[in-house]
């Protein structure tokens, strides 16, 4: 599947990321912005499963809600997401839980 800037910017919009970040250097963006950019990129890879560790650890509550909504939308279209998280709010939005 070829890279599509339009699809990437669609993911950026869903995740609350400004398009201008696409043209910035990694050192110029925050950890939370990098985290959401990598979530967007991972979704564009077209794989059936995303495994992610602490997807909301560097995010405020609004951004964390957007990440959860982003994943839930894709799960509705057949993607599986395996997430490790200590964020109880994020965990409440997940379909299944394994507690260790």
The outline comes out as globular
Tell me what portion of residues adopts beta-strand conformation: 5-15%
Report the sheet with the most strands, covering strand number, pairing sense and barrel closure.
2 strands, parallel
Overall helicity? 40-55%
The string of secondary-structure elements, in order, is HHEHEH
Structural class: mainly alpha
Q: Reading side by side through the largest sheet, how are the strands ordered?
A: 1-2
Task: Extract low-pLDDT stretches.
Answer: none
**Strands, total number:** 2
Q: What gyration radius follows from the Cα positions, in whole Å?
A: 13 Å
Number of helices: 4
Note down, in words, how this protein is organized:
45% of the residues lie in helices and 10% in strands. It has a two-stranded parallel ribbon. The chain has helices at residues 5-15, 31-44, 61-75, 88-92, and strands spanning 49-53, 80-84. The protein has 100 residues and is mostly helical. It is built from four helices and two strands. The longest helix is centred in the C-terminal third of the chain and has 15 residues, at 61-75. The relative contact order is 0.16.
Feature tags:
100 residues; two-stranded parallel sheet; 45% helix; mainly alpha
Write the SSE topology.
Blueprint: H1 5-15, H2 31-44, E1 49-53, H3 61-75, E2 80-84, H4 88-92
Helix pairs in contact: 1-2
